[in-house]
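Q: Entry one of two.
A:
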Amino acid sequence: MAYHYRIFDNIFDIESVNNLFIDTHYFVAQHRIEIFYLSGVKGAEDFDHEIKPGKSIADVIRHRILQTLPELRLDKSLQINFYNLKNVANLKRYFKLYGVATNATAALAYMNNKGQILPPSQYDARRYYGGNSINLVHHTKPVNIKEYNDDLASYADNPYKDIPGAYNINFKYYPVKRTDPGFNPIRYGHGEMIGYNSADYDLVMIAHFLGSLIEVPVVRAVLNEIRKNSKKSRVHWPRRTIKADAEKLNAILQPKFMRDFNNLLFSSQYRQNMVQALIKHDGQTYFKRIETVPWYIYKGWKQTNRYLDISDLNRRVSLKRIEAAMGMQINESLPEIEKGKRGVKNVDELADFISYNLNDVYATRLTFKLPVYQDALTLREILLKKFPALIYSYDPKKVTREKATPKDVMIAPDNLRFTRLNSDFSSAQFIINVIAPYHAMKDIPGLNYLYPDPRVLKILHQEHPHDPYLPEYPVNVLDNTMRWAREQDRKYHTGGSIARNFFHVYVVYLIMQYHNVNPDLCDPKTGISKHEKRNDLDGVPRWISPYMKIKPYLRSKNMDMPYIKKDGKPSSCMVTFSIGGIHGLEFNQKKYLEDVRHWKKMKHLQDLMKQSFGADQKGAERIGSTFIIKNRGQIIATRPYVKGTIHGAQWRTLEPPHLLRKLSHSDRYVIRKRYAYIAVDSCQHEDFSGYYPMLISRLGSFWPHDQPTDMYRHLYIERLHLKHQLRKYTKHSPQWEKINLQQKLRKLLLNAGSGVGAGSFTNNLRMNNAIISMRIIGQLFAWRIGEAETLAGGRVPSTNTDGMYVMDVSKKTNDKVLFDNVKAMMLDIIPSPLYRFVSKDTNNRVEVEKHGNKPVLTEANGATLRSWQGPTPSNHLSHPAVADWALANYLAYHGKNPSTEPFDEHAVMKDLEKMHMAILSKDKYVHALQMFQWIIMGNQTKHRYLFLQRAKWNVETHQWQLVGFNQLPRTNRVFLIKNDLHGIDHFIKIATKQEKKSDVNHSSDPYTEQVLKGHDDPLDKYHEYGKVIKVTDMPEHQNVYLNGKRLRFYNQQMRWWLYQHLDIHAYMKFVEVKFNTSWRNK
């Protein structure tokens, strides 16, 4: 659903360097760009200044903008205006554009259109700031603007006079909220303010600027129009301004003031939470004092829900990466200016810098158009309308906070929550506040494997009174699973293989049972569980169990186990249990068993040698220059030397082959590469989508025992109903789209529940005991289904929380086994056949369905496959997307089993040529160019800077001869092109610095030092040396072509040139390397 820009909606972005501050606003509907600035650039302090007759600095900048951004040239109605913030009228315009709330009531409640400030009905701030209410300034009658302004005017003569409410600004500058009575953004002149990463940085910078200005009395006097009848006062500051005010004002209206605060924000103290820089510390307690004007201004903006940070609608990805990946124009400022090593030197650099800033603004607009952002915004807007408790507080006259539920919400413009939710909040924040908006839910006292919740079981009995599978009482799933394993052993074999195989997992979960794993239920000082009672799953109050740190406990446990076949032997498929989700894969059992047999053979031979040849080199005696080796006192050999040291030589330890290895940085065990296996075949997909929401609903994990209904279960049932309705309508019809939006809304909330409940941060929905219990129960159920399929003759090459994939079993058998097991579990899991399934492990797979008689690739996941449909804003793609596309197609369609056959270059080249031809297509060329581009980025934090080596082929020596280099910006769009053996080729490399080792003689690469110096990161020659490293996966001497222009503006001539010069063979080789490394059985 495309966003409709209203007249005052705008996209904004700021930039701050040593001698320039700019804030650019693009009013899309008005075809107008407004650029506010503070300039200290020599000769360009005022952009209206003419550099030659009839041509101002502003004209030069406008021309450069249109030259740099061709898409703006297409808008013939576009106006680009500049506003110097040192000008009074421009500053007033700036204040009105943003709106300022200088006290708590204006920031947290609302102001009516007579200028009257009404107090809020309750103070949510107490909860967040140590029980002390914030300093609220109440007005019970309309403000007398004339008297107020007269008081301010008298301040010029008596700077020490105490003025009541001195920081108040009249209604003209009030930040209008969406919740205000009769809200009309067109009438009020306040539209949406859309930015990228704006909440953390841009708004904090501007709040600091405006708040600092308001603290200067003369600014308040001018803003409140004391001399509004004077034409002169509209442009110039009053002549009566006292010296102290003038000095303070002059210091603020300098770009250096903004740059200094910028540097503070990026310091280690505030970098991770920049808003804290607006809050004053009291110096005594952990809690902060918030009575600062800049903080109220910022808080006022956040309460309006008009300041939208679109980076929060998708997981945070750098705007530059999105610009490049999605085919937008790449434009970056000079690194020495950005780092603050120097300022903008002249008008030419000034024009470039502002063009760079506007490029980010336009990129934000294009990014906001992408479906992932539009869908996220649409869903959140609907949620805010559907659940008013996300915005408003409860009625304190009717209920206390501890008893308040979402139904107790009081919708009133002066009853906003202290931290109301906005349209750019995360799905986790939404589910927390939909279920528990006013107070924290109470977790169960410890891990408990009872299933289902007795209240839910009662409802199920009422809905299905004759269902023979429903138990009379909840069951302990862990004990029930062990009982089930023993039953299968008795049914299929007498060796007890399944129960014995499962026993070590059973013991781990048994020890964890009834322990508290939620730190929030512990005393923060002692770390011991609180002496309190909590309702357990069965509703019985019990003391909180002893606290257990489960991660350190599980670190020493191997939770892997194979599925057991009907004959009692392990299958080639295995699963890994955890406290997160279950994961399973297939390994090369044949290779592993060969290695085991070989080890046993070698061990047997060694044992025979030890038995028949008791001596070893360790027992040798030295007589003169000869070593005498004895066995039972008899000399058996005389040698001039003995291999190894005399005292260290001994029989070699023969280690048995290990199937798994423990990751050094994690608790997990993984399959050794030697035994990795790619499974390829048709299969039955047991779709577990919505598995955790289903289990949470069955367990009543978010259902308080003092509430009659379960809000979470209600959302789950609603989604099931909506999904059923979808089947009645044609896909993508208007009615289908409407219903699909509603079910996606509920999916957004439901899927966030498990992560929030098991989270490591304190929130109203933190239910570690309940949710980890649910996850363990879910894993036990999943293993039982997989084991049952294995006993029926199936093979389970992939198991995860989204579902499992079963091979070597008919659909009829699969459906029967699935039905028999899930009915007893009270679950609904729908199987579906796949024509081909290619699986490397839990997360790396290819799915092919059959539509009619035609196989169709429907899904591909994993690091080398996920971008098979093209780059997306969410993927940090480090290679050309066309490689994922070609590899996915190769695995999906080539041969009977591509993973067991040698790589077919011809088949991949044939596919790549189709995409290659699309570059010349009028309709598809942008997509094709996106597929072939390779976005390569430097990393300043790791001291990695990109540059181009220029090289020439020496026909006599048959070697490349370096002839120079070019510095590159941080972000680059690269195409692989054919080598030009008769001209100059360009190789992209990385210059970096490394620490010298004292015992090694280091020499720097000839270009590295210059590259590092050019990025203002010179070498410390006593401790560091420069080194050139290759771009990951880039061939050593691959010729490249760089072009940061927007792909849409690649003309026919440029595309024809690319078509002729693209090195399709190099792309094919890239696919071959990825296939042989990750997707071929060796």
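Q: Entry two of two.
A:
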Amino acid sequence: MNKANLKAYAPQARLDFIAAVSARANLLGISIQGVAPAETRGDVAIIEGREWPKKVLAQRQKLIARIEKEGFSQTIEAVTYTWFNRFVALRFMELHDYLAHGCRVLSNRAGGQPEVLSRAAELDLPGLPVDRIRDMQLAGNQDNELYKLLIVAQCNELSRVMPFLFERIDDESELLLPDNLLRTDSVIARLIAGVPEEDWAQIESIGWLYQFYISERKDEVIGKVVETADIPAATQLFTPNWIVKYLVQNSVGRLWLEANPESALAQGLDYYLPPAAQVPEAQADLDRLVRVRIAEDGVALNPESITIFDPACGSGHMLVEAYELLKAIYLERGYRPRDIPRLILEKNLYGLDIDERAVQLASFALLMKARADDRRLLDAPLKLNICAVQDSVDTDDALIANIILDAAVQIDRGESSGSAHLFGGDGVTDHAHSSGLQAEDLRMLVRFFRHGKAFGSLLIPPVELVEKLSTLSAVLDQVESDGNALAKQYSHELRQYYLRPAQLLAGTYDAVIANPPYMNSGGMNAILKAFAQAEFPDSKLDLFSMFIERGFRWCKETGFNCMVTMQSWMFLSSFETMREKILANRTIASLVQIGFNSFPEINSKVAQACTFCIAAVPIRHHVAQYVDLNTAPQSSDKDEVFRKRTAAMVFSVDQTEFGTIPGSPIAYWASDRFRELFASGRTIEDIAFSKQGLATGENGRFIRLWHEVSIGKIGLSMDSRAEAKASGKKWFPHLKGGAFRRWYGNFETVVNWEDDGREVRAFGTENGGRARSRAQNVEFYFKPGITWSDLTSTFFGSRQVPQGFIINTVGPSLFAKSGHSLDGLLGYTNSRVFQRIVDVSLQGLHYNNGVIGSRPYVPPTHVEKVRALERELVAISRRDWDAYEGSWEFPGHPCASAEARSLDNLEAAWNAWAQAKSADVRAMLALEESNNQFFIDAYGLNDEISPTVSEEHITLVRPDRVKDAQRFVSYAIGCMMGRYSLDEPGLIYAHAGGEGFDPTRYASFAADADGILPTMDLPWFDDDGAQRIREFVGALWGVERADENLEWLAQSLGPKSDEAPEETIRRYVADSFFRDHVQVYKKRPVYWLFSSGRQGAFQALVYMHRYNERTLARLRSEYVVPLSTKLVARLELLDKDAAAASSSSSRSKLQKQIDALRKKHAELLSFDEKLRHYADMRIQIDLDDGVKVNYAKFGELLADSKTVTGGSDD
């Protein structure tokens, strides 16, 4: 199975199916805008002038009623997935030859039209008389209509054994079956072409197709507050096969092996973790539980009694895998192979889900799995135990209950329940049914599912309902058999929609196996959030944790709760109560911490999972098996890592030991010595304050990247709030986390703290409201300390902070307490010892200040050694940070420094710098390992932590010829704009409006007179960017060496074949520089690209800090208007050349140039008109508003406006 094919096909298929179904609805006069009237004329219906068979009106009315209830889009989506699922099922069945007639319904083995068309008269499908088929074939023009009838008839035939997927069609589904299904671009043709036959070999392809089918909808709703209807799309995730095998083998497999110690099945269970050696007390409890379970069946464990429940079954992956193991168990017990499939489906496997689409596919997948083992399986209907949880919020429970109970009482009394009682009879519900069942019991069942789609399997049936389930079942049986028509219908619906799910929810099982939905409380809607708080107070923070807690209620005393979930519940303090209850009242049998790359299909570092099997009862001093896959490289194949695990990755631990660490994290790797660190009681907070800082309430209003504002308004290196206030500055450096980085850096943002934060502190209170901001711990503002990023998906990294910064909630910091020093603490928090310590409680994601402050810390006795290490490491990291334009201390590009200019050329300068950078990386690697060893020795952890540092953890930028060449061009353009100068280090001009610009500071290489730099594909102007790069390298190493330096630069940027160096540089400046600039400056560029459009007739960079209200007029008069004149002259010349061309090929070549230039000229004229309009407006910008606001003022004049002005400010 090639998942790439499925991934490419399914999302587009959803859109194609929706379009086809919508088009069919539109033909029927139904659209999102409304419903057209219909009228009847004899035997036909007329809708918008089109004739239809009269029976269409009843189906159409059902469709209209459904749309009124559910909405147009949701109804179309539902019908769409119904037909998608059916076509997918038919495709699988025809390729595996599972259709009774042996014909292909969707395709033809020899190519051409589907086989059923030519053999239609032989098929004997229900509701399709042979004479009608022959009449349509003889007509010669009814193939499309006949084919639709054949598909409907085939679905109706399959409804006998698969009513869940092929419910008998005589409704809006038939009405909306797409047209033109025989065309080569139909949804069926695309299904056949999009998924090659070999990709249908395994039933798992069905699950993957569905996962990819909903992927775009998932992307649309994820990260938002999710409506009930979107919960399936937001939470479903297909489980990697190896995890499914682990779950099944360590639950069902373990049960069988413990009950049958001599079983040979263990040899084939590659993902089974055999129980560790136990102390006698624990082993005795384990043996007792095995005996209790066997006793349920008699003298031996009966395969028919083993029950497996997946409460979030999705498309059935877990149940399909369980089928395989159960089949092996039955075979080992000696059952006849042909009897096994039906037994497994009807007795062993149970599943629930809120997504009816997924339930359809899960049921189908199981049937197909069983059909492969029993060719007669589909001859008779089966009773599958998989169903969807429904909503009853719009159901009239009183009416339904009375009609059913009325019929039941009539039957009970031996009275007729025929047509005379079609609508409820004569009110005999006042009399009791002999079973004691009352109307209120039926209503209770319906009301229990009032919010079924929102709560799903988390619903807990009340005791009074559970006690009535068997009686309800018997009464519904009775009414379905002998009741009147309406009562039969309601009884059937009540059983299917409410009784069956309630029975599954109330059941207990040997194994609960699931990949539950993941959704934190921030994504829950109000109804779901209230339910979580009321029913699952210990696990309410996420759906997955609520499922863990709910899972134990489904377990028998001897059962296992087995899931794959996020690993956060193992460590985070927010799950502490839940975790401690599990450790006290349940028993971990085995657990695998997967960590990074848990779900390769979503490529997410955030979705770090664990998978586990937990026994439902406590067993004192039980030793469980734990496997650590998280220490493997992040991108590694975790399936392979698990199968090739070493002894060092496997830990045998008594879970009572977890309680020795505060919060009881599942720190299975912690040694006795390691746990002693926590027992010492000494923490970071003994010597340092751990503080969060400012929450602005609206970052887009109060926070900027430092390069967005005037450098003159930024107050740097302030030592106190008083000095900051007295300075009169508006913006001050702000610690806001950032990417994983150690020792120094990530100083990117500034915050509006003018007048001691007057505006931000008052934010929200302007009209007597409540403050939206939170200026906390202000006494630590501007103090030196140690900071880190609160949110990260990798490792903990701390950084030295000099004085002058304001802390943020996501950039918390440590500050020395009176009488204490931070010396040694930076080294400690960047050591492998500390990483291991924070992993105990955090494992990535949020490193909040409270947890960091409470971590164990014993100040080093030889502080001078670690202080020296810190000093060197900070110096290297600072040198690295300041070597790039992102730093306000950037002195200039290293290849343009005085030292670089003393070398022969640009190549030599880069080589020297690259060697120095590589030396820094090697030095930092050695210093970090020394730092690690220092703390390993200090804490006595030599036997369990290695000082070795992987080079990927060294947070320095590596030399990269391509990127460094791009940075060199960026610096050159900065010098052209006047931002930098070859004569002085650092930032030269970054104020506002060009005020105070001093041309004399650019003697070696002159800055542009107006801060406007043309960047076209041809040298129309002397001061264009590509031309000036030649001047720039000439100023550095002499004009006579310009060619060799341009050659090296062009080679670095990536030349095309037969492209001269200056052409390569020009192409980069014209086509790629701005894109790179936007990326480097984090979507807040300082050089703005004014562009005429796709033809590239005109484009020029304008330096934001030098822009003023006259800039657009100058842009037009000095560049756009003259360029128009040049283009006209060029066109006239080309016209003459074309007229005088001696050959047709020359003339043709010239004509192409003329056509291209005319398009450019037309674009330029249009741009000039827009530019004139904006120039007349004399637009002013206020740098304090930020790039996002100011860039938007120029509309279509600027390139990549959506990139710059869109997105979040956080």
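A: Comment on entry two: The chain has five domains: 3-201, 235-353+355-388+510-669, 397-447+465-492, 684-953, 961-1205. The mean pLDDT is 90.
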